[in-house]
UniProtKB/TrEMBL annotation:
This protein's name: Carbon-monoxide dehydrogenase medium subunit
PROSITE patterns per record: FAD_PCMH (PS51387)
Domain called FAD-binding PCMH-type: residue spans: 3-174
SMART domains from the UniProt entry: CO_deh_flav_C
Provenance organism: Labrys monachus
Enzyme class: oxidoreductase
Superkingdom of origin: Bacteria
């Protein structure tokens, strides 16, 4: 079966101002970076923009560095760039490991951290890191705290035409990530990011399982604040009704899987454990 995409104009600006001007001058423009969400949606006929604006050639969206005690990653940084960055590996090693676990080599070489966070796919990896590390999403207009950014399934606080230019991460005392992925798609069926921040607070973020997308697991945070050990999570439980149930796993199965991944994330502070 052949797939015919609707006609559209394609632009590859080299400055942020040009990208924004192109968007403002079109009736139905969309930004594209890696294209791993947008192109399948277009192929399915669920989106038909008249203009595609490729953000990959804009230098201002690149770069990874440490500034004012924060790890800054440009929104256009690819997953492979994050995974191989010595700056990331030194500051937050588990974030580099998480990036290296995304998809396959083709996905990692084209997909970007900004695109992933902007689309907020319920099974994406980065949103759990952003939420658990209390990161800030920086756009061309403002800075948005992680707790205010994710608003639901495929939904964020971004306004039309707003571009994720960078993400800044406080450097935690420690952090760990564990993911159980679908062996075919490699998306997370359930994944948990656990961090201990510099102020001593514990944050636990779950992706791949919530029917409203990424979320913090308050009961697990409270248990780990009392005793930071895998055993502390033995009595923690999630309401299955709040989780995704599909052909791959029931809600009850995912509830148990989340607890198992949380335990692994606590046990593996400083790295990512991937299961499928």
């Amino acid at each position: 079966m052949s797939i015919v995409l609707p006609n559209f104009s394609y632009h590859r600006p080299v400055t942020l101002s040009d990208a924004l001007a192109l968007h403002g001058g079109s009736d139905d423009a969309m930004f594209i970076a890696g294209g791993h969400t947008l192109l399948p949606v277009m192929k399915a006929g669920l989106a038909a923009p008249d203009t595609l604006i490729d953000l990959r050639a804009i230098p201002d969206l690149q770069g990874i560095d440490i500034a004012d005690g924060l790890l800054r990653i440009g929104g256009g940084a690819t997953h492979v760039a994050v995974s191989k960055s010595e700056t990331v590996r030194t500051a937050i090693p588990v974030l580099a490991a998480l990036a290296g676990s995304i998809g396959d080599v083709q996905v990692r070489n084209r997909g970007t951290i900004g695109g992933s966070v902007a689309n907020n796919d319920p099974a994406a990896d980065y949103p759990s890191a952003v939420l658990a590390l209390d990161a800030t999403v920086v756009t061309d207009r403002r800075s948005i705290a992680a707790g205010d950014y994710f608003t639901g399934l495929y939904a964020t606080a971004l306004e039309p035409g707003e571009i994720v230019t960078a993400l800044t991460f406080p450097i935690p005392a420690s952090a760990g990530y564990a993911k159980f992925r679908n062996p075919a798609s490699r998306y997370a069926m359930a994944a948990v990011f656990v961090s201990r921040l510099g102020d001593g607070s514990i944050r636990v973020a779950v992706t791949g399982a919530g029917n409203e997308g990424v979320f913090r697991w308050a009961e697990a945070e409270e248990a780990l604040a009392r005793d930071f050990s895998a055993q502390a999570l033995d009595g923690a439980a999630l309401d299955p009704d709040s989780l995704i149930g599909d052909i791959h796993a029931s809600t009850a199965y995912r509830a148990n899987l989340v607890r198992v991944m949380a335990r692994r994330a606590v046990q593996n502070q400083g790295k990512a454990s991937i299961f499928s």
